[in-house]
């Protein structure tokens, strides 16, 4: 349903001379259901859905609670209409299913429920009005299922209709459904439609003061006053006031470019439903905390499999390490194809999965997604990535003139994409990588990166993009001098965003390249101080970096400790690298024979002759042990504890089941168990 029309005078095409007009805010605090009712009356579907998801304490679509009051129940049903009008059929079906489960019907809601016999004493007589009300919900549920090609479930829902109002409709629809189910008739395919959330601007708040989107737009542009969040949240009652307050405070922090505070504000909400988790994931991704963003999106998907917002970002992050996340990617793709066959995100994630197995199929998904995606949306970014991946793969497999054709097509695609979304860091990085593939593309890449950094001076991705181009220039021409600008950018990133290990690695490499060992040692000290800021997945790389540079400075014992910690954390080290390490250790003469001077190895060495149960003790690191040593000891303790506990259980079972049949008292058994 289109949004409600307003008079032209209600919207102002330009801002007043004295700044933005103040937002009109209701003076009386109302319940969230009243605010939702106002938004539904105005047909502001996106605003109503956002407010409902921000204040909804239920963590999943299949656990929504049904309001008890009649007026709130009507609003709850209107929310289903809002979901349906915005083509969020999975959530609309979840609301209808939640309502259906409250029906005191004579048949259970399980497919095929119309075939399950019902005991006579369970049969309940209903009035015609009750039947008509329930039939309306069943018919709405049938329509939602039919739109997503769930014909068997739709057939079952249609068979639940018992009144007279929809009798003719049932007779008309059933034969076609039966033919489709029995495969005697081909169903019409689900039609993809260009889709994007229709969001109002700031002036919409003059029409409806219950809308969150206009206020968020003001706050993210840093145009709001200091009391705007507090004044707006006072319109709500109960927990909704707290949730709205912290949601808007997060948007205010984003406008002030304080992403860490924005994430912290979201953690203070009364719930962590998929909407909140997805927003937190996007903020973490914005500051390059990809591991945390991946964890939050995986939690959102596990909490609510029907959730689609951000799932394209989840798959995009997973394909960076596809062998590790292959099962998750296949599960997400299967869910989206089942619940969201009409959305572009489904085509994109299916293309990402197909690209790992069949290039021809991936190209088909990429071409189709580009036909329906709306420029300027998040879906557009990932559709461009899919198309670029396919063109690169085709370029690798092509020969002669086709290579030039695919390369030019890729460059034209990226030039068009960055023109449509000039502030997208993902598209900017993809465009720069495309330019750097050519031998003569470094100058153009540097110009683009400089312009992108100038337009986004506070964006960490813009700084890393410029660093990426400068480092590439140094690798192309070692005599090229970018020291001043390169060091300035890296120092800014390491100080403002200490969780980015790659920035420390770049900085160490550049100082090492120019032979400035004192600065390398200073960077290593800063890296050690920011150890807690690094994600867990970067632990092994952290120890490898420490080991490499400490060994370079001939600090052998700490270097060996970090090397052992890196190996314990799963760092891949091939035989050639290990030979180099052994050569360095041997030349230093600090490691001799059986490592007799490395006392810390005595505490982590694994004894193959397992001692008796009474002699098992927990390994303790020596006094003043280094952090990498402590990590190695902890890993060894976990392994030994698991082995000993399993063996002790086997021994206890053997003692309890003695061969001579002697009965053992419980107290004696307890005394025997250490």
Description:
By secondary structure, the protein is an all-alpha fold. Among the domains are: 159 residues, Serine Threonine Protein Phosphatase 5, Tetratricopeptide repeat; 140 residues, no CATH class. It has 30 helices and no strands. The chain is globular, with a radius of gyration of 31 Å. It starts with 31 loop residues before the first helix and ends with a helix.
Number of helices: 30
Number of strands: 0
Order of helices and strands: HHHHHHHHHHHHHHHHHHHHHHHHHHHHHH
* Name of the CATH superfamily of the domain at 23-181: Tetratricopeptide repeat domain
Report how far apart the termini are.
Answer: 70 Å
Share in helix: 55-70%
Instruction: Output the CATH class name of the domain at 23-181.
Output: Mainly Alpha
The coarse silhouette is globular
What radius of gyration results from the CA coordinates? 31 Å
Q: Kindly report the CATH topology of the domain at 23-181.
A: Serine Threonine Protein Phosphatase 5, Tetratricopeptide repeat
**CATH level-two architecture of the domain at 23-181:** Alpha Horseshoe
Whole-number mean pLDDT? 79
Strand content: under 5%
Q: How does the major sheet shape up?
A: none
Structural class: mainly alpha
Question: Which residues form runs of ≥5 with pLDDT under 50?
Answer: 1-21, 110-115, 200-206, 593-626, 651-674
């Amino acid at each position: 349903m289109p949004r409600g029309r307003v008079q032209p005078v209600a919207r102002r095409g330009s801002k007043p001379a004295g700044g933005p007009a103040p937002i009109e805010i209701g003076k009386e605090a109302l319940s969230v259901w009243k605010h939702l009712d106002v938004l539904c009356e105005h047909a502001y579907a996106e605003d109503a859905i956002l407010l409902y998801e921000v204040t909804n304490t239920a963590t999943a679509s299949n656990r929504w609670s049904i309001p008890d009051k009649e007026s709130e129940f009507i609003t709850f049903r209107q929310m289903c209409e809002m979901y349906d009008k915005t083509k969020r059929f999975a959530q609309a079906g979840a609301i209808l299913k939640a309502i259906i489960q409250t029906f005191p019907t004579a048949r259970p809601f399980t497919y095929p429920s119309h075939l399950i016999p019902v005991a006579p004493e369970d049969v309940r007589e209903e009035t015609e009005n009750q039947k008509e009300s329930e039939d309306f919900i069943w018919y709405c549920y049938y329509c939602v299922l039919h739109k997503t090609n769930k014909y068997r479930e739709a057939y079952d829902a249609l068979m639940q209709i018992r009144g007279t109002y929809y009798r003719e409709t049932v007779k008309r629809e059933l034969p076609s459904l039966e033919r489709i189910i029995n495969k005697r008739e081909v169903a019409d395919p689900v039609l993809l439609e260009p889709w994007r959330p229709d969001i109002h601007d700031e002036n919409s708040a003059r029409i409806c003061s219950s809308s969150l989107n206009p206020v968020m737009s003001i706050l993210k542009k840093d145009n709001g006053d200091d009391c705007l969040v507090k004044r707006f949240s006072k319109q709500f009652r109960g927990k909704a006031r707290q949730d709205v307050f912290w949601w808007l405070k997060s948007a205010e922090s984003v406008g002030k470019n304080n992403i860490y505070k924005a994430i912290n504000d979201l953690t203070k909400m009364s719930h962590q439903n998929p909407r909140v988790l997805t927003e937190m994931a996007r903020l973490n991704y914005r500051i390059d905390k990809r591991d945390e963003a991946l964890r939050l999106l995986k939690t959102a998907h596990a909490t609510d499999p029907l959730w689609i917002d951000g799932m394209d970002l989840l798959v995009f992050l997973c394909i960076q390490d596809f062998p590790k996340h292959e099962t998750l990617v296949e599960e997400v793709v299967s869910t989206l194809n089942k619940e969201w066959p009409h959305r572009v995100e489904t085509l994109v994630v299916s293309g990402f999965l197909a690209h790992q197995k069949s290039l021809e199929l991936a190209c088909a998904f990429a071409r189709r997604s580009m036909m329906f995606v709306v420029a300027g949306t998040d879906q557009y970014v990932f559709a461009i990535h899919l198309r670029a991946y396919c063109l690169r793969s085709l370029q690798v497999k092509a020969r002669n003139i086709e290579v030039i054709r695919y390369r030019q097509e890729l460059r034209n695609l990226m030039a068009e994409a960055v023109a449509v979304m000039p502030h997208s860091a993902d598209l900017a990085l993809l465009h720069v990588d495309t330019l750097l593939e050519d031998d003569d593309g470094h100058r153009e890449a540097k110009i683009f990166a400089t312009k992108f950094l100038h337009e986004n001076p506070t964006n960490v991705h813009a700084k890393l993009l410029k660093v990426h181009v400068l480092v590439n220039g140094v690798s192309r021409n070692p005599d090229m001098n970018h020291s001043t600008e390169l060091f300035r950018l890296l120092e800014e990133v390491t100080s403002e965003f200490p969780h980015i290990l790659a920035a420390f690695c770049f900085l160490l490499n550049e100082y090492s390249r120019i032979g400035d060992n004192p600065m390398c040692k200073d960077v290593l000290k800063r890296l050690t101080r920011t150890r807690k800021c690094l994600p867990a997945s970067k632990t092994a790389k952290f120890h490898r970096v420490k080991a490499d540079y400490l060994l370079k400075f001939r600090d052998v014992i700490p270097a060996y400790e970090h090397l052992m910690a890196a190996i314990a954390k799963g760092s891949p080290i091939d035989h050639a690298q290990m030979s180099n390490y052994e050569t360095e250790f041997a030349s230093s003469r600090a490691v001799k024979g059986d490592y007799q001077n490395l006392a810390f190895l005595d505490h982590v060495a694994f004894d193959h002759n397992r001692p008796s149960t009474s002699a098992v003790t927990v390994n303790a690191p020596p006094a003043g042990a280094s952090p990498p040593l402590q990590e190695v000891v902890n890993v060894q303790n976990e392994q030994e504890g698991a082995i000993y506990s399993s063996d002790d259980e086997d021994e206890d079972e053997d003692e309890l089941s003695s061969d001579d049949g002697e009965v053992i008292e419980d107290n004696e058994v307890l005394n025997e168990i250490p």
